[in-house]
Amino acid sequence: MELTIRNAALETHPGRLMDIGIHQGRIAAIEPSLPPGERDLDAGGRLAIAGFVESHIHLDKACIADRCAIKQGTLAEAIEQVAKAKRDFDEDDVAERASRVLAMAVGNGVTRMRTQLEVDPVIGLKGLAGVLRAIEAFKWAIDVEICIFPQEGLLNYPGVEALMLQALNAGGTVVGGAPYTDSNPHGQIDRLFDIARDLDRDIDMHLDFDLDASWLDVEYVCAKAQRRGWQGRVSVGHATKLSALPPQRLEEVARTMADAGVRLMVMPATDIFLMGRQYSHNIPRGLTPAHTLLKYGVTCALSTNNVLNPFTPFGDCSLIRLANLYANVCQVGTSAGLADCLAMVTTLAAQVLGCSDYGLTVGNPGDVVLLDARDASSAVAEIASPLYGFKAGQPTFTRMPPTLHAGF
After folding, report:
1. 241-260: per-residue pLDDT in tens?
2. Bridge partner residues of 42 (DSSP)
């Protein structure tokens, strides 16, 4: 073996420490007492995962908070401020900022990612070119796919569709959308499904991003997915309207989503920061209870969304921190519930992205991250630090546990 990780705790083998052997970039064995490999690491009973999965993040507009004015903290202001800032973006600038965020992600144990990338006549394809450069520079440590979307509208913005098609043929892999920014939201949804059909691509939309639950675009999307035969190929992000639904109505919508195979990504930091700004007191959290939707069969993930910009003026790409934030805000405290929170940034997030080769299974890529925890629930409860990372069996980062100096 080129690498053996000994005495690791695995969620698939509860109560028993296992060794992981990696050869030629893939997991070759998972069993106790493997002989030491060329590189040998004793996990000391710590939890091994296949790395965190970042299912929704914007690399192209990260790290620009210092270029923007954040006064109201609203979604409309964030869109406006970023629209102004991106007039000055160039390929080098985007590549540098995207690289900064990818370095954060790798250091926090992320091994797979879907990034959202916006196109329009202002930015053109400069954002795509910069992000592709950053992805190439970090391909040794993280797999990144690109979702192309129209942040400021599609049908109402001449030239955007042509740019989307160019981007989808020049490195983009997923058709994205933001219907709430369009003059005809359902028209945008219809067109996105047309593009996805023509190119045979999955769809990933920003959707239902406010607290007015009197109407829901997600139901239209579910009906469209079933009519088009796109079940299991559609994801929606935010969907904060669902946080404002009473339990019976939430169950109804969740079952509709499950039947249509529409997956959900909740973004704790952004959704909490932007929602409820119109309230002066007793402010709603604006965070959709993904753990509840899991019970009705919806595949759910937690994700970062934005880092250091007007949509989210903080962040470090730590998905274990976001899982803990979500658990706090949604009052998840049981061991099983906390384990679900970890799954929503690992195995379930991989399912949202359609990753067929994710997980600590013989034959899969040798991607392993060791967390300073003994099991899934304690990892979330204690915000366990990722200590070691490997991509295809090669080391990607090391974070040493703190050393206490007593008796000084």
Report:
1. 999 999 999 999 999 999 99
2. 6
E strands, 38-161, in order: 39-42, 47-49, 52-57, 110-118, 143-149
Other CB atoms within 10 Å distance of the CB of residue 51: 32
How buried is 278 (Cβ within 10 angstroms: 0-12 exposed, 13-18 middle, 19+ buried)? exposed
Q: Look up residue 397 and give its two tokens.
A: 């980062």
Q: How far apart are CA 123 and CA 106, in angstroms?
A: 27
Contact criterion met (CB below 8 Å) for 238 and 177: no
Q: Render the burial of 347-363: b for 16+ CB within 10 Å, e for the rest.
A: bbbbbbbebeebbbeee
The per-residue pLDDT for range 355-398, each reduced to its tens digit, is: 999 999 999 999 999 999 999 999 999 999 999 999 999 999 99
| DSSP-assigned states of every residue in 221-249 | HHHHHHHHT-TTSEEEEE-GGGGGS-HHH
Q: Which long-range contacts (CB under 8 A, 24 or more apart) does 22-26 make?
A: 22/366, 22/368, 22/390, 22/392, 22/393, 23/366, 23/393, 24/393, 25/365, 25/366, 25/392, 25/393, 25/394, 26/363, 26/364, 26/365, 26/366, 26/392, 26/393
The pTM assigned to this predicted structure is 0.97
Tokens of 275: 């929602």
Among all chains, which residue has been given the structure tokens 């169950």? 251
- Which single residue is written with the structure tokens 């890529």? 365
Q: To the nearest whole percent, how much of the chain has pLDDT over 70?
A: 100
